[in-house]
Design goal:
Elements (H helix, E strand, L loop, with lengths): L1 E6 L9 E6 L6 E2 L4 E6 L4 E5 L4 E6 L6 E2 L4 E7 L4 H18 L4 H13 L2 E7 L9 E6 L6 E2 L4 E6 L4 E5 L4 E6 L6 E2 L4 E8 H11 L3 H9 L34 H10 L17 H22 L25 H16 L2 E9 L1 H9 L1 H7 L5 H15 L5 E4 L4 E4 L5 E3 L1 E3 L2 E3 L2 E2 L7 H16 L13 E5 L18 E5 L3 E6 L4 E14 L5 H16 L7
Parallel strand pairs: 20-24, 24-25
Antiparallel strand pairs: 1-8, 2-4, 2-7, 3-6, 4-5, 6-8, 9-16, 10-12, 10-15, 11-14, 12-13, 14-16, 17-27, 18-19, 20-23, 21-22, 25-27, 26-27
Helix pairs in contact: 1-2, 5-6, 10-11, 10-12
């Protein structure tokens, strides 16, 4: 017997990783490839195997330590069944038996080492959830056979009625075969391509497919081991129970397979209580959480979501004359569902105001020559964006979202504004980010670019997400006022109607002024009427004298 150091093997390119669990203690006997401890990378949890059979002398790390490839994590006393004894058997004359036939014992012993050192396997990549969309056409293939790709690289681009979207790779590896072609229509679960995945990644994924229940079983079966008392796990709790979320920036501990399941089921992992070691979230936790949410919705759905409201029974319209039926476009169906959900869940109030934009329009028109040089058309929208950003900063109660389930107000420290765009395919709302940090010309160029992408159906999902507030304008069409529906989870939306010349009393006589009607709809749970009046008054002041935007 001899002492042997236990070192951290190749971690697949990861640098320092955190030790999250010790699976053995001093005095424990282990076999070759038995797990010694568990570490967690950004991508997966990985069990570090024993380099051979023997008895653990000591471990030199503890839970929470950071380790990297080559670090010594402990020492062990090798037993007679270790690789060293196999070598002795070879020296004593076993080589002729190897040549005579059959697989020699030394060859069998070498298999685990080969597994540890690498290898690869072929994964069939499937189409992930597409937000309820089905049979979306492939408009571009982004990889070819033989390409080496990283995780999250774009594989193909598909186009729905609403936007184009890239489907990312869940693994890094080498493309073996592409299973789709341009023009094919894809739904969730369809096969995309075959990918040769590096051995380390494949093994991590296999371990997590039956997820982290294994360490819990080890905990029970090896409870007699001395060192288990060193790692005190929290008392078991019912899987999937809802709890107060961790502090901002806190990590959610779960393996890739569990995270994938949560994504597929639409579960927010920050709301799930983990029942695994160190509070790790298991598949059972995710499934139990989803089940509890479904039960809660079924028990109280009619109150919480308005689903108890009776529907409208339609007559047979053909009895009155000729009719023609056509299926709603996917975009129309999604928009209708979103509008109904917002209207039923948000207590709407609308505040009206007229802004005097006479001087603003004079300044805007004076910039026509400068705009031609820049290749950008200056419209009223950049002024509205800038004024709204200033108002959101001054009245931050409009830049929030409400989490009624957890009774929390989420205050946003950024100002992203959505702009509603009328397209031949329906209304689309691209989002301009960090409006408060951009100038008028930059806002003019970006809004024009996003509006054109919306009309061409080239907006990506990320370009329609993250808005704090929305502006919708009917000024180019007509109307004097309207009540827009709040785009939840935002709490306010500004409607803009057509500007018109009106006589305005200046104290001594009426003056012709260009007046812009504004309609601010807001969620009365988050915003009170006085603040809404302050918001529209501030907008009118800012648009009435654009020099105040510089203050």
């Amino acid at each position: 017997m001899s002492e042997q150091e236990i070192r951290v093997p190749d971690l697949g390119g990861a640098d320092e990783v955190e030790v999250i669990e010790l699976l053995v203690s001093a005095g424990d006997s282990v076999e070759a490839e038995d797990p010694i401890l568990t570490v967690e990378t950004d991508k997966a949890s990985v069990e570090l195997p024993s380099p051979g059979a023997g008895k653990i002398i000591k471990l030199t790390v503890k839970v929470g330590d950071k380790v990297k490839e080559g670090d010594v994590v402990g020492t062990m006393e090798s037993s007679g069944d270790s690789a060293g004894d196999v070598g002795a058997a070879e020296d004593s004359g076993s080589q002729p038996q190897q040549k005579a036939g059959g697989e020699p014992e030394a060859s069998k012993e070498s298999k685990p080492a080969a597994k540890k050192s690498g290898g690869s396997r072929t994964e069939t990549v499937l189409v992930p959830p597409l937000d309820g969309m089905e049979k979306v056409p492939v408009i571009e293939i982004n990889v070819s056979e033989g390409d080496t790709i990283e995780a999250d690289d774009a594989l193909v681009t598909v186009e729905s009625d609403k936007a184009s979207m890239e489907i990312p790779s869940p693994y890094g590896g080498k493309v073996v075969r592409v299973l789709v072609a341009e023009g094919d229509k894809l739904s969730e679960g369809d096969k995309l391509l075959e990918l040769m995945v590096a051995g380390d990644e494949g093994e991590d994924e296999e371990r997590n497919e039956a997820p982290e229940a294994a360490p819990v079983q080890n905990e029970k079966s090896e409870a007699k081991a001395e060192g288990k008392a060193q790692v005190k796990e929290p008392a078991p709790q019912s899987p999937g129970s809802v709890y107060e979320p961790p502090a901002p920036g806190a990590k959610v501990h779960a393996g890739p397979a569990v995270r994938k399941l949560a994504r597929e089921l639409g579960a927010d992992m920050t709301r799930i209580k983990g029942s695994g070691p160190k509070g790790r979230i298991l598949k059972d936790d995710v499934q139990a959480y989803v089940k509890s949410q479904l039960q809660r919705a079924q028990q109280g759905g009619s109150v919480a979501t308005g689903s108890g409201i009776p529907g409208i029974k339609l007559p047979d319209f053909s009895q009155f004359g000729d009719i023609q039926k056509e299926t709603m476009s996917r975009m129309m169906a999604v928009t209708a569902a979103n509008m109904q959900r917002s209207w039923l869940n948000v207590p709407h109030v609308t505040q009206f105001e007229d802004a005097d934009i006479t001087d603003m329009e004079a300044f805007r028109k004076s910039q026509k020559a400068a705009g031609e040089k820049k290749g950008v058309k200056m419209t009223p929208l950049p002024f509205l964006l800038k004024a709204c950003a200033t108002a959101l900063a001054e009245l931050p109660q409009f830049n929030v979202s409400l989490d009624m389930e957890r009774k929390e107000v989420i205050r946003k420290q950024y100002i992203h504004i959505g702009i509603a765009v009328d397209t031949p395919n329906g209304l689309m709302v691209p989002v301009i980010r960090d409006v408060d940090k951009k100038g008028l010309w930059e806002l003019a160029a970006e809004s024009a670019e996003l509006a054109q992408k919306a009309r061409d159906k080239k907006l990506k999902p990320a370009e329609m997400q993250g808005a704090c507030f929305t502006i919708t304008s009917l000024g180019g069409i007509g109307g004097t006022a309207f009540t827009p529906i709040v785009n939840a989870p935002e709490v306010a939306i500004l409607g803009v109607s057509r500007a018109a010349m009106k006589p305005v009393w200046d104290g001594s006589e009426f003056q012709p002024r260009l007046m812009l009607p504004l309609s601010l709809s807001y969620d009365h749970r988050a915003v009170n009427g006085a603040d809404a009046a302050r918001f529209t008054s501030l907008l009118a002041q800012l648009l009435g004298d654009i020099r105040t935007l510089l203050l």
